[in-house]
Amino acid sequence: MFKIGFSLLLLATLSYGSAPEAAPELNQKYHDSSSCKSCHMPIVKQWSTSYHAKSHYGSDEYLRASMDYVKRKTRKPINAVKVQCAVCHNPRIAVTETGIDYQIAAVMKLDKGSEVNKAVASDALAEGINCLVCHNIDKVHDGLPPEKRGIHRISWNPVGVMSGPFEDANSPYHKTQYRDFFGKDSKKLCFVCHANDRSETGLVFANTKDEYKETTKQCADCHMSPKREGVASTLATENGKAKKRMVREHRFAGAHTTSMWEGALSLVGKKEGNKLKLTLVNENPHNIPTGFGARELLIDIVYQSGSAVVESKQISLTQHYTDKRGKDTIPHLAVEATKNLSIPANSERTFAVDIPKGVGNAVVTVSYRLVNDRIRKLLKLKEKQWGEKKFITKANIRF
Ligand code: HEC
Ligand code: HEC
Ligand code: HEC
Ligand code: HEC
Ligand code: HEC
């Protein structure tokens, strides 16, 4: 009994204690998605429209503004912040940590030519989460503590070995290896990063893994596409033709895509006494909204008498984040958050509001915003998309 316990403990210490493995350095043959175009063009095109492709300081205004804000408030060098966020946003980075030595060097402007600066400037990062992130993963270490995510949770294949969903794939350009986390267990791959996103003080503000309720649908069914007949590679390998396969599209569509929102929730409204009870029903296997902090649902209620508007009201379902002095801040620097008001997976939430006197009906519209008012103001976000309302559903409730 004692022996088993002891060896388990030893194993655990060994695997928790090991330093994260930096990704092997890429070469010209396997550099970025352009190295894959000649045989996987449709996939490269689909992926390039996704926010995985925009996961980089230079490509996503919100990400950039958040990194700059962390730098200002913590007085860390910007490259130290970039390395910290790279754990999930730019996993091909060649360094995994910056110590106090680097921070001192940076303050004294002695960091030019340092390993950290070279790693951050590498153009292999500019594509964010690209083919050579997901398909170069050898193992996903599922048993690690929940805060170990991104590059801390995986080990890498040698450059030039592509892991994928097929046991019989054969490519003249690269080696191939079957891994179950591309097929029946692909959520294991997604949860490398889509879980336990936490602030500097350990407040977890996004956790799709924790919210998830098992269903028959896979993440890939909704976020890539259902499986359909096509080709994995356009290279003619079978008697002058490309091999036919059941494949998915690499869209990774999510919160930024308007069509993902339409019908994502349904709305039931009814009058009870002088209250209007509104129930939002979520049939998806994770909360809506899931993911990044400061996302927002809006319920707009317009009370009417005939066609005349009597009164209107807006309910905001979002979370606000505060620092140790109780001031507004971004999720990454938060010590505290207000209550999570998202609609739980495979479940529903009901809100009750007063019905004003003398009204005949209420037109209720539910919509979504990527970033709530406070954070848009705090970060001075300029692009229109962060504050735009995306339509989810609407109902006209007669009293
Ligand atoms: C010269 C053509 C060619 C190039 C360039 C190429 N591949 Fe492939 N790849 C193939 C062929 C052929 C297959 C096998 C297709 C099949 O069996 O249906 C394949 C299969 C794959 C698979 C599936 C592996 C499996 O075991 O399921 C992945 C993943 C993949 N390639 C990724 C990449 C990435 C990433 C790049 C760019 C770094 C790339 N490929 C560049 C030809 C190529
Ligand atoms: C976020 C992770 C991720 C990224 C980034 C990614 N893939 Fe995939 N890829 C997957 C998953 C998951 C599957 C398995 C889908 C399935 O069939 O269930 C897959 C499947 C494939 C396949 C086999 C064909 C298929 O549809 O099943 C090829 C080839 C491939 N990917 C190439 C690429 C190339 C080229 C890129 C870069 C443009 C890329 N992938 C980027 C996750 C990723
Ligand atoms: C290496 C880490 C990593 C892995 C693995 C990963 N993701 Fe992501 N994903 C991210 C990051 C980081 C973003 C946000 C990028 C940004 O907005 O700048 C993101 C964004 C998304 C989005 C939001 C897109 C939008 O428009 O709002 C979806 C959906 C998504 N990922 C689905 C998946 C699925 C499905 C898988 C598994 C097949 C997966 N991801 C695997 C890190 C990852
Ligand atoms: C039945 C379809 C369905 C399945 C299955 C599903 N999702 Fe989603 N997901 C949605 C819808 C609809 C949205 C858009 C609403 C939103 O962003 O909350 C979404 C949004 C997202 C986002 C964007 C969040 C943001 O704020 O940027 C991520 C990340 C995500 N899903 C990850 C996953 C992962 C990981 C899995 C598997 C464990 C998964 N989803 C399974 C329907 C689905
Ligand atoms: C544990 C992995 C992880 C780490 C570390 C991480 N992120 Fe993210 N981040 C994600 C994932 C996954 C998403 C995808 C969307 C979602 O779930 O809403 C995301 C999304 C975002 C978004 C929303 C982007 C958009 O287009 O809407 C911002 C902003 C962001 N992260 C900032 C940061 C900053 C700043 C850091 C470093 C201080 C950081 N992240 C570190 C996983 C991580």
Please tell me the total number of domains: 2
What best-fitting shape do the alpha-carbon axes yield?
A: globular
Largest beta-sheet details: 4 strands, antiparallel
Q: How many E-type strands?
A: 17
User: What spatial order of strands do you see in the largest sheet?
Assistant: 12-11-16-17
What hetero molecules are bound to the protein chains? Answer: heme C
Helix content: 10-25%
Estimate what percentage of residues fall within beta strands: 15-25%
Distance between the termini: 68 Å
What is the CA-based Rg, rounded? 24 Å
Q: Please tally the helical runs, counting DSSP H or I stretches of 4 or more residues.
A: 12
How confident overall, as mean pLDDT? 93
**What is the ordering of alpha helices and beta strands?**
HHHHHHHEEEEHEEHHEEHEEEEEEEEHE
Uncertain segments: 1-17
The helix-and-strand class reads alpha+beta
Description:
The strands form 7 sheets. A 4-stranded antiparallel β-sheet has the order 12-11-16-17, with no helix packed on it. The chain is globular and about 75 Å long. It is built from 12 helices and 17 strands. The model is unreliable at 1-17 (pLDDT under 50). With 399 residues, the chain is α+β, with helices and mostly antiparallel strands. The longest helix has 16 residues, at 2-17. The chain folds into 2 domains: 17-247, no CATH class; 261-398, Sandwich (Immunoglobulin-like), CATH 2.60.40. 32% of the residues are buried. The chain has helices spanning 2-17, 37-48, 61-74, 78-89, 100-107, 115-121, 131-134, 187-190, 208-211, 219-223, 258-261, 373-379, and strands spanning 137-140, 154-156, 161-164, 175-178, 197-198, 204-206, 228-231, 244-247, 266-272, 275-282, 296-305, 308-318, 321-322, 336-337, 347-354, 361-369, 390-398. Helices cover 24% and strands 24% of the residues. Helix 3 crosses helix 4. Bound molecules: heme C (5 copies).
